[in-house]
Amino acid sequence: WFSGALPAGVVALLDLAFVPVLGARMVAMLMIRPKPQNLMFIALLTLFWTSNLLVHLDWIGWSATEAQGMRGGYGKADILQGCTLTVEKGQIAVIVGPNGAGKSTAMKAIFGMLSLREGSVRLDGQDISALNPQDRVKAGMGFVPQVANVFPTMTVEENLEMGAYIRDDDFRATLDQVYHLFPAVADKRRQNAGELSGGQRQQVAVGRALMTQPKLLMLDEPTAGVSPIVMDELFDRIIEIARTGISILMVEQNARQALEIADVGYVLVQGANRYTGSGAELMADPEVRRTFLGG
């Protein structure tokens, strides 16, 4: 009854803590009164508590994405040097670092756009390292590239419908959700995407990725070239998306602003992890601030 008032992870831990107490109580009851009705009561109570625990463990026991020890790049050159990234369900993870650090390369490797010589990528516990990008979309990945991320001669609505190409169900409810998330896009649904502002095109691109109903949404420089006001609006929408349980993995040039909304941040240098922590921890680290956040 209290699960709606507490984070799911806290409820799961409370469930786990109660298991020894419940077990001891059951044993004592059977020893004192080994009656059929007691056995039935214990069976029902066990079934209820186990189902409750499994529901909440869904939030703490699995990572949406685990990319371990990634090593690879373009041609014979390894850009990634053992990079590891993990994003839990509903988290916002941000990758920052200097130019040439391998940030976008790491995201493309997770999406299957380049082959890894070492390492693996798992989604909800399943190894998807051998899947191509299209099959990774079907498995639950959405990817929004930095540029050329809309079909300019197609209308906004046609762009969004293209995102549902892998679905064989009625996607109108998802379309309505995208329009609710991005009302400016909804107002221009009959207009060609190429006629929109940069911020609006970015909203269309994110919306099209959401039409696939992803478990993980990857955004490569989502605020590149937009005004500070539009950047703040995009970050607000990203927070809303994460609250629905979708995991977010984002490469962002506006590192300070991105870390402010990040549950976890990764600082990459020369294709390897240099610093890892919550957004607040990284922003409080003097070395991270001096080297990567401009002081």
Tell me what you see in this structure:
By secondary structure, this protein is α/β, with parallel strands linked by helices. Helices cover 46% and strands 22% of the residues. It has 12 helices and 10 strands. The protein has helices at 8-32, 36-60, 103-111, 133-139, 156-162, 172-181, 183-186, 198-210, 228-243, 255-261, 279-284, 286-292; strands at residues 63-74, 77-88, 92-96, 116-123, 126-127, 141-144, 216-220, 247-251, 264-269, 272-277. It has a 6-stranded mixed β-sheet with strand order 6-7-8-3-9-10, sandwiched between helices. It has a 4-stranded antiparallel β-sheet with strand order 2-1-4-5, with helices on one face. Strand 7 (216-220), helix 9 (228-243) and strand 8 (247-251) form a beta-alpha-beta unit. Helix 1 packs antiparallel against helix 2.
